[in-house]
Amino acid sequence: MQASQTVLERRYAALGLLLIAPTVLVFCAVIVYPLVSAIYLSLFSIFTPTLQGEWVGLDNYRTLLAKDEFWSSLVNNLIWTVGTLTLQILLGVGMALVLHQNIWFRSLARSLILFPYFISTVVAVLVWKWLFNDLYGILNHLMLAVGMIDMPVDYLGTMPNAMISVILVGAWKFFPFVVIAVLARLQTIPDALYEAARIDGAGPIARFFDVTLPQLRDVLVVIIMLRAIWDFKEFDMIYLLTGGGPITSTQTLPLLVYKEAFALNQMGMAAAYAVVMMLIMLVFMIVYIRRTRQEADT
Amino acid sequence: MAHTRWTGPGMTRRTALGGLAAASAMAGLPRAARAQTAPLRWWSPQSSPAQAAAYEFQIEAFKAATGIDVVFERTSDEGYAPQLAAAFSSGEVPDVVTHLPSFAAQTYYANGLLEPFNDVIEAIGTEKYYEGANNVFLAEDGNYCATGIGNSAANMLWVRRDLMAEAGIDKIPETWDELRNAVSAMQKGGIYGAPLPYGVNSMTSLIFIGFIHQAGGQVFTPDLQVNLDNEGTRNALEFYKEMREYCPPGATNYSWGESLTAFVSGATATGIYTGRVLINVNDQNPPLADHITCATYPRMSTDIAPWTFNDFASVFIPAQSQNKEAAKQFAAFLFDPPGYIRQLHAAPGHVLPILRTISENPEYQDNAIIQKYSSEVDLMAASAANGFNLGYESPEHQSNSKAGEIIGSNIISEMVGRVVLNGDNVDEALSDASQAIEAIMAS
Amino acid sequence: MIRRVAFNLFAWGIVLAVAFPLFWMLVTSVKPQFELFRRPPTFLPETWTLEHYIRLIQDTPFLTYFKNSIILSTATTLVVVAISTLGAYSLVRFKYRGRESLAFLVLFTYLLPSVVLIIPLYLMLVSMGLSNTIFSLVIAYTTFALPYALWLLRSFMAGIPEDLESAALVDGASRMGAFVDVILPQLLPGIISTALFTFILSWNEYLYALVLVNSDSARPLTTGVMNMLVSSFNIEWSLLMAASVMMSVPLIIVFAFLQSYLTRGFGAGGVKG
């Protein structure tokens, strides 16, 4: 009996490996191999169009750490990530609470709210650029009409407007993700918990902090991590909205990588930036996971 | 040259990457098979619907004449650099590329990426060109890296006579002072003075290089020493900064499209663009059509000669093309009068003929826009023929094969942005920009 | 009662504010070009026109891009969901060495910015003779879609009670038989939800498409539209807005039919980690 069990277990383990094999193969081919190549490339100085260059060892990394542009892009990257993530979470949780209530045409309201997340970044950027337009944009027109401003505002071309605009558009585009996840979780919170709190005399605000928030905790931990990763490496939205401008004021690390690789044709340098960027995210991730685990344990 | 540069232990980068590629087993198999059957790929950033239609006509005519298929694929002014970089590095190149600036062709040629163009120029007929039309394509090794497909006068000053009359201005500005006064007088009622670009992009770099020359300065000395920090550049920066208040708020992100649309829509009193303005105004905003005219862009003083920016739109053939003979045949065929004229008519006054024989051709003259604005078109043709760009700053300058990289790096537009928008110290901005350009020249 | 009305108005106020850009996109797309140059802008179009839609379909390669996007997103979704369903099953229900580190690797690949992988990936695709094909993008999209899909499905899978499968096994089903008969039906909402997310991610991707594909025959909508309409010779906002509306139509359809799956599926454990 004992022996046959192990045979079965071994057979299962083999089957398990077989099932994971396609994943592992694809991972190796399209992720691990390019990743290793990227690290390898970061040790060269390479002219992009010809892909020829010479071994420079760790020189790229040395240059990069000494460059102001790297640090300012990192700062921008953090401002953008923290700013947009905070807004996404606040808006997302708030909206999920609203949509959890029984409002008129609830399912229509839900669809409308979720929509920004599902349209393409290209579409979102085009629409917002059109809204922001200095000459024909409706936002400027409305604000002029109600007398909030007397000259059209340059939303994307000056600081701090550009960073604020990018953060706002980012929040608009991605907060529905938070709504989806939180709403789904809200629906699974047993009503009995609220009843109990109500009997204990808790008002709506106390109920939110005592019942809802603890129940949402796990979901929020995961959402914050996912969204932080995605926001940190967001390229499309910032690139298409401001291109990193004015000058380099909204240039984040992914844009810097792209610029090094294709505008400055320094593929090796670009790879070095990318590797460093990855390391930064890795450190953040590990710290974040550690801390949330610790909190969960205590 | 880069492709003969050896690495320490005697291994070129190509070998290194070859190793990487070999690891993925099937290296290179299907590429050879492609040679005979695949159609020629033709890239251009000039692809408005009317132009694309003209290209289709040329493609069909070529197919009828030779049986060779061609497919047209669009790229864009801001996007061609990464796309071609990817194409060159992979070997999956287009067979013919048109309408990129001459300095892009020079840069690629200097890196061994292009096929010498001499025999195509001969096939087109050297005697048909305007004299010296191909000088800008002469490479260091004595070969031609490309030929022109059209001239353009990209920094013409466009004005509205109606607004000038209203503001009591009787003559088109020739100097910066006159320009400043004029835009200041015309800026009212929601109309701005000028749509100058202030974004970090190629337009800002290219237009600002014009301003440097219009102040008597230059970016390089004739023997290609970086000479950005000069009186002209400083004056140009100062004037460009003064002009900011006469430009729409969004000019901080303007590139060609926004700048053009601002003038065409009537939002700015003056414009800075090629002859494309003509067709766009007539199509999109006909009420302005009878009021517009153009002149060469004003200079700091009339003692300084006008400096017209001509990107010298090129035709070239990548060295890695699998079908060079057909590509050369097609490149020459592009200049065949019926097709070439149709292509030029797709944006009359925007791309100006490079061949004398075409300008004189009655069929070319037979176009409503070219006739209606004949003096403007003539002026643009004359200015463009004597035009310059960063790869070719003056007749004395050696050709600069790094110009494409300098424009692509946005060093110059970044400098403009720092001084004009951020109010950074001019000395610092100039010295940073000079150093960055020197680094590119040295690489 | 008044509080209820006030709350509803408040809620709908926010909803409409969030949806306003979409309304504006729709309105702009039916305004004629000259009306766009009007300042101040007209709120509702004075003249309604569908010319931009007609031009888009007749005079531009829009439909080619559209078809490419459909093929590309569908193919990516099929490949990714198939691989990741098996992978997730294996990661959750089997015990073997390296399982945990594999799960960590999945998480790690999340961190990879697309820009890191682009050039090596491109070289690889070229040497395989796949560059400039839709298939090359399918492979590229796998790099970000697969880790995410695997992650989602893993948590869905973890939400299915193990007893069900054990019961089937005791009844004499083979492991794969139990997978097909018991797990798959239970996992369906998760699969649909994952498929939707994958489809959306692929439909909307921009960077890979920008660098990896340079021919109109394989270009998807995102880069196609930008390349075609945002040019140095014109910026036709109404055409851009018409294109934006049409790019979003398939998503609206998919969304309208499957919205409940999306939210419900998520509740089943999609983000429990």
UniProtKB/TrEMBL annotation, chain A:
Record keywords: Cell membrane, Membrane, Sugar transport, Transmembrane, Transmembrane helix, Transport
Transmembrane annotation, as ranges: 12-36, 78-99, 111-132, 164-184, 238-258, 270-289
Membrane topology according to the record: Multi-pass membrane protein
Species assigned in the record: Jannaschia seohaensis
Residue span(s) of domain ABC transmembrane type-1: 74-288
Highest taxon of source: Bacteria
Protein's cellular compartments: Cell membrane
Main location as per UniProt: membrane
CDD domains: TM_PBP2 (cd06261)
Stored PROSITE patterns: ABC_TM1
Descriptive protein name: Multiple sugar transport system permease protein
One GO term (biological process): transmembrane transport
GO cellular component: plasma membrane
Record InterPro entries: MetI-like, MetI-like_sf, UgpAE/MalFG_permease
Membership in a protein family: Belongs to the binding-protein-dependent transport system permease family.
From TrEMBL, chain B:
Localisation: Periplasm
Record flagged with keyword Transport: yes
Keywords noted in UniProt: Sugar transport, Transport
Coiled coil: none
InterPro entries noted in UniProt: Bact_solute-bd_prot1 (IPR050490), SBP (IPR006059), TAT_signal (IPR006311)
GO annotations of cellular component type: periplasmic space
Alphabetical list of PANTHER family matching this protein: ARABINOSE-BINDING PROTEIN-RELATED (PTHR43649), DIACETYLCHITOBIOSE BINDING PROTEIN DASA (PTHR43649:SF12)
Name this protein carries in UniProt: Multiple sugar transport system substrate-binding protein
Source organism per UniProt: Jannaschia seohaensis
Taxonomic lineage of the native organism: Bacteria, Pseudomonadati, Pseudomonadota, Alphaproteobacteria, Rhodobacterales
TrEMBL record, chain C:
GO biological processes: transmembrane transport
Pfam families: BPD_transp_1 (PF00528)
Entries under SUPFAM superfamilies matching the protein: MetI-like (SSF161098)
Transmembrane residue ranges: 7-27, 70-92, 104-128, 134-153, 182-203, 237-258
Keyword Transmembrane listed: yes
Keywords: Cell membrane, Membrane, Sugar transport, Transmembrane, Transmembrane helix, Transport
GO cellular component, one term: plasma membrane
Protein name according to UniProt: Multiple sugar transport system permease protein
Organism, as annotated: Jannaschia seohaensis
